[in-house]
Amino acid sequence: xxxxxxMAHWLPFxxxxxxxxxxxxxxxxxxxxxxxxxxxxxxxTVVSPGFVDTR
Length: 55
Known about the structure:
Number of helices: 1
Strand order of the largest sheet: 1-2
Largest sheet: 2 strands, parallel
Radius of gyration: 13 Å
Low-confidence stretches: none
Mean pLDDT: 89
């Protein structure tokens, strides 16, 4: 299973508190899933893309 998060869970930025918190929650959720499912042969990983300046 692959979950897509963001670097915002490691490196918060202004005016994005809820976004960063949701990505941190997703990462911890993935860690919990990994612990529960690894014995069943299910791999769980999180992809955390970096920031892109789109200006």
